[in-house]
Amino acid sequence: MVETSTQADAPAQPRTPLNRERILGTAVALADEGGVDALSMRRIAQALGVVPMALYKHVANKNELLDGMIDVVVGEIDPPAGHADWKTAVRRRVLSARRMLLRHPWAPGVIESRTKARATPTPAVMEYLDSMIGIFRSGGFPIDLVHHALHVMGSRLLGFSQELFEDTPGREPDPDAMPPEEMAARYPHLTELARAVAHDQESVVGSGCDDQFEFEFALDLTLDGLERLRLRLRDTP
Amino acid sequence: MVETSTQADAPAQPRTPLNRERILGTAVALADEGGVDALSMRRIAQALGVVPMALYKHVANKNELLDGMIDVVVGEIDPPAGHADWKTAVRRRVLSARRMLLRHPWAPGVIESRTKARATPTPAVMEYLDSMIGIFRSGGFPIDLVHHALHVMGSRLLGFSQELFEDTPGREPDPDAMPPEEMAARYPHLTELARAVAHDQESVVGSGCDDQFEFEFALDLTLDGLERLRLRLRDTP
DNA sequence: ACCTGAACACCGTTCAAGT
DNA sequence: ACCTGAACACCGTTCAAGT
């Protein structure tokens, strides 16, 4: 059933050599079709017509493969439109992210679980968030309000809701983590936000934000919006 | 916390007989400790000091066990406070749900994936949503606005964001599904909502709501709230 | 009629034998 | 030095042998 490069019924086999890109593309397609539960190293290999072990020369393990899949699909989100007002720009970008998530329904779950397992979101997610923060900043939002805004947007940003930058107390620093100066250069808006939040939280141990406060802030903004809507609808029926 | 039967050679006496409740309690505790990935039938059995196959007399399979775990933790959410205004009542209930989710971080993912796999959410989830709709209705929300409100609340209701009642076109009706009249008696508010939505969508095939419209409605309400906040902050610094 | 150990078909990954 | 088949330690669930 699994055709090897024998001369029998299969044509000349390695016309397209295996590489990371092809592996990720096949993995994304398989997850789109059958969900992430049906995705296995063995199945990817089978779809590519190679032996399972061949994958391990291009991806370290399955987790690293999932990280690569995340960056593939997040890379499909349209870049920000340069010259629109902040609300239009955010709206377009979020709707583009939603279209991506409709194509790849497995993505929110994978992004969430991988972000929880890693110390930091994957590079493409970082870039997406950084440019989203940039839109708010250009639109005149003070940095603290941008922080609230991200929590308010919540699951509408990437389809899930858990906090992306959660403090995990018992975690030793990653030996090959990105040095702070490179971080600041690559993700200037995220860095600015992180510094502002850390400053606000000076008294608290750790640099995480006050999740309870942010949750209630977003909840109350939502409830106030609904109350305003209810009153408007009642007064103008 | 989780007791293992220590001695293999000691004659095992069933001091506490196995039942569904004990199995679910142990499963929830194991998931709380090690996450849902570390949860296996074999491990639950080991924690209870029984052979894996013994579980299958009380739960049909692992999916049914996950459904039971959902109902256990959703049952931990405080019931609605009877005599508060709608905003206070919703706020309290959602904050109670959040406390539950902090105790059981695996719950959103399991609820979401099981709801997707089943035709309908589990009974406890149905009851939670029904009573939440009831709060809005008592607070003077027209039924259509309640529908929007649930979409706006989104992930804040149960920690995840995908639609709970998604149309899955190719699904044969469950033979032992609840009859409509029992449905209407058990979940009156949900039924009212479903009827209103179906009426609005008369022209469209299927009874699902317009997800794209609801997404944009919620997104715009959020963005408007943020803009109002920005202006207020700018004018009163 | 009941209980359960062995077995089946999977999985990610290691490892050493073969080239 | 490379490649890869076999093996390991898991998994959910079936099934038939033993009681």
From TrEMBL, chains A, B:
- Superkingdom, according to UniProt? Bacteria
Q: From which residue to which does any coiled coil extend?
A: none
Q: Which N-terminal residues, if any, form the signal peptide?
A: none
Protein keywords:
DNA-binding, Transcription, Transcription regulation
**DNA bind region:** 40-59
- SUPFAM superfamilies assigned to the protein according to its UniProt record, in alphabetical order: Homeodomain-like (SSF46689), Tetracyclin repressor-like, C-terminal domain (SSF48498)
Q: Where is the HTH tetR-type domain?
A: 17-77
Give the Gene3D superfamilies listed for this entry: Homeodomain-like, Tetracycline Repressor, domain 2
Q: Please give the InterPro entries that the UniProt record associates with this protein.
A: Homeodomain-like_sf, HTH-type_TetR-like_transc_reg, HTH_TetR, Repressor_TetR_C, Tet_transcr_reg_TetR-rel_C_sf
What is the protein name stated in its UniProt record? Answer: TetR/AcrR family transcriptional regulator C-terminal domain-containing protein
> What organism is this sequence from?
Streptomyces hirsutus
The major lineage groups are:
Bacteria, Bacillati, Actinomycetota, Actinomycetes, Kitasatosporales
